[in-house]
Design brief:
Elements (H helix, E strand, L loop, with lengths): L3 H9 L5 E2 L3 E2 L2 H6 L4 E2 L2 E2 L17 E4 L5 E4 L4 E5 L2 E5 L4 H20 L5 H11 L14
Parallel strand pairs: 1-3, 2-4
Antiparallel strand pairs: 5-6, 7-8
Length: about 140
């Protein structure tokens, strides 16, 4: 559980952001801070004597979409915004960056193109689905 004071301490220690499958308090104050925090929800209780640091620099398992579990390793790239969280395995980062740049160029083209027929828009949208790739852990690995 994280509140405003702990969030401020983390930010002062150089933490760039916090993602938790737990709850936070002081949501409005945290939202005004420079450090982004994404949590499952909020609670009015404080966290005194309710948590402890067990380890650091080790892989963690977080809940993912549709009941899946997401493994996050220390060198993974984690991107988050108001729409959600994406974890990119370090080894896949160059491929994902290339795909993202291609997608961004296609989306820019769609946004700036003159008015198109519905058929032309549908064809353009179908063409940009080629970027969708799911990276999965090999069977049996967590």
């Amino acid at each position: 559980m994280t509140g405003e004071l702990l969030a401020n301490d983390l930010a002062e220690a150089g933490v760039a952001g916090l993602i938790t499958d737990g709850l936070i308090r002081d949501r409005e104050a945290i939202a005004q801070s420079a450090m982004p925090v994404i949590a499952t929800g909020s609670i009015p209780l404080n966290g005194a004597r309710r948590f402890s640091l067990n380890d650091h620099g080790v892989p963690v398992i977080m809940p993912g979409p549709e009941g899946a579990q997401v493994r996050i390793c220390p060198d993974d790239i984690v991107l988050a915004d108001a729409d959600g969280v994406v974890v990119i395995p370090k080894a896949a980062a160059p491929q994902i960056l290339e795909m993202a740049e291609t997608l961004a160029a296609k989306e820019y083209e769609l946004k700036t193109a003159p008015a198109q027929t519905p058929e032309a828009r549908a064809k353009a949208r179908a063409g940009r689905m080629s970027h969708m790739v799911w990276l999965r852990q090999p069977e049996g690995k967590q």
